[in-house]
Amino acid sequence: MMSSLYLVFLLVPLVSAQTFRWGACPNPMVQPNFNVTNYLGRWFEIEKLPASFERGKCIEANYALRKDGTIQVLNSQFYENKFSTGEGTAVVHDPREAAKLGVSFSFISPYSPYWVLTTDYESLSVVYGCTDVLHIFHIEFAWILSRSRFPTAETVSSGKELLMNEGINLSMMTATVQTGCED
Predict the structure, then answer these.
(1) pTM of the full structure
(2) Are 73 and 159 in contact (CB under 8 A)?
């Protein structure tokens, strides 16, 4: 028990730029009959829970199907006066729950949950990810994405409402700056 507490105290500084909460991850409902092919393409980040790897503006994600059936994830942002990208891989672990994807940005890191809670494929996607740490606390990620840099307020509100209805605390959610971006 003492070693577990020691490990927790060592991990806390690492998650300071993340959203962490005590207890187990919630288990929200995901998009039924999710169609990966319809989801592919460009999505703009509109709002998010803090993530240490996303600190810039003009954040977007592009998804493309690879020949091997995996999904290429190409994230980009403008930060500290430069444009940067990160490439990862997404996989569908279970075709019966295709909206529960896993994503990894390194050959050595495990796949992290990337669950599509809802999408209409044309204007809105609400994504959630959560990882338990020793069943003591969990690290959460949540994104409201849109095919447009500037979705309607109603679109964003409906995404937030869905997250709240699933028991996800949005008190730390912030808007992503999408002005001054080049297309």
Answers:
(1) 0.87
(2) no
